[in-house]
């Protein structure tokens, strides 16, 4: 099993075609077929099934492709670190952002990293906290934003900010000038993130402590859908301020901070404790932290309080 064979496996998996993979890898198709045949012989398993729409990975193929992608990422990072430009930061960095913070941070983060380190390619994976933790553990991202996460054997975390949560409703429903008492949600229809989403846990814990029952009419793992359902009058929801800035500004949603009691989440910068930090991630982390600090202290992140360095 060698690198060329693994790259061939992944190219076919992504294109669904040996012919397209051959073009992508600048190989003749018999060489592509030979690489896959040798992999199958070594693994003792069929890696692809040929279907009407192309070549599809088998269960064994998906497992090998997953580990192969990780191996190639590690090799690419090693190659970047030992490259000839000793003083230049180069390579590829994958960052995991929470769905609620991505629209606020992603564009400016890429711009800052690229301006300071033009040889760095920035990749951003966006998901909910559970997804991001899995990406960190699997080595698919090097840096990530999480919330209400503590240091463990697998993660190193640095607390950055506390962000207030907002009750949101259809346009004109909620007065933004005063906090919204949690008790006023009693028996109201609610649209919430799917369990076991971290935000869902925070909301359910707060409601349980306050002795409040609500009518959960819809659950979704899509932030845009959650906001759309609220906009169309299906119910209310609770979201962090960073997720709703644009909607509150343009009036497509109404909202106010949760009050009595106040409700917030803590956002932390996380790294995998078991992996050596690459020069790219060491260089980019201050850019992410600095951007967030500027937004909070400059008022561009309403409802957030800076607690980091």
Summarize the structure.
The protein has 309 residues and is an alpha/beta fold.
Instruction: Please describe the biggest sheet, giving its number of strands, its sense, and whether it closes into a barrel.
Output: 9 strands, mixed
Count of alpha and pi helical runs: 10
Which residues form runs of ≥5 with pLDDT under 50? Answer: none
User: Might you state the CATH topology name of the largest domain?
Assistant: D-Maltodextrin-Binding Protein, domain 2
Structural class: alpha/beta
Label the overall shape. Answer: globular
Query: Which oligomeric state applies?
Result: single chain
* Overall pLDDT: 89
The number of strands is 13
Q: Name the helicity range.
A: 40-55%
Assigned CATH superfamily of the largest domain: Periplasmic binding protein-like II
Radius of gyration: 23 Å
CATH top level of the largest domain is Alpha Beta
Q: How many individual domains?
A: 3
N/C terminus separation:
46 Å
Strand proportion, as a percent range, falls in: 25-35%
Order of helices and strands: HHHEEHEHEHEEEEHEHEHEEHE
Overview of the molecule:
There is one protein chain. This protein is an alpha/beta fold. It has helices spanning 3-15, 18-25, 29-43, 59-81, 99-116, 129-138, 198-210, 223-231, 245-250, 279-297; strands at residues 48-51, 54-57, 91-98, 120-127, 143-147, 155-169, 180-181, 189-193, 215-220, 237-240, 254-259, 264-272, 304-306. It folds into three domains: 3-81, Orthogonal Bundle (Arc Repressor Mutant, subunit A), CATH 1.10.10; 91-160 and 266-303, 3-Layer(aba) Sandwich (D-Maltodextrin-Binding Protein, domain 2), CATH 3.40.190.10; 162-264, D-Maltodextrin-Binding Protein, domain 2 (3-Layer(aba) Sandwich), CATH 3.40.190.290.
